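Recap from last week: sequence in, structure out.
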Amino acid sequence: MFEELQDILNSTAITPSTATIRLAISFLLGAVIGIERQLRRRDAGMRTFTLICMGSAAAMLISIWIPQSYPNFLNGDPGRIAAQVLTGIGFLGAGAIIQSHGSIHGLTTAACIWVMAVIGLAVGAGMFLAACITTAFALFVLISLERLEKRMFLDGVNKILTITCSTSTPDLKGIRRILEEKNIFIVSLSYEHNYEKNISIITYKVNVKSKSSYGDLFSEIRKLGYITQIKLLA
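Predicted structure tokens:
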């Protein structure tokens, strides 16, 4: 039984047995990453990643099967179908990216979708070891490197800080200085002017300590004199 399974795994010909085994492996690898995303309550979860991995594996199987079954098909390119998977998966990844208030969310999920497609292609091509190693490294990046990122940001959390000013020329350096004095790390910045109403809206994506008190921060910013509203959102 074991020798028969080994022969199926090592076979380069696409048969019902090899196709079934490769699709089953792609299902398992997709489910591993999908479970991790599901536990983090991401929109793309177990079902999405499993289907992506299985679909990519099936595309690679078809790419290999066509020239194998039709040897006189001179214009056939065994890599053409598989190559289009990576192009098409980009549209799915783009749908996972959300831009809101100057902040971008979903880049990690989009990257996972792309990597999952590559893993599926590797399984479909019979490169099981490479697919398993890539899955293991992807899981390591998603779990362990997130902890490292949090340590680099002093165990902080990302929030959106919106400051509305009653002037079209606010002191950006002064605001930055206040944030730095409060040990608040600026991740990104967007700036909006309204010259007709003579107001400015500054939106920061900031990293702050989870137990920080924001009363002192708001008081320091209000001392600038032209601040009409301050909002801090998760």
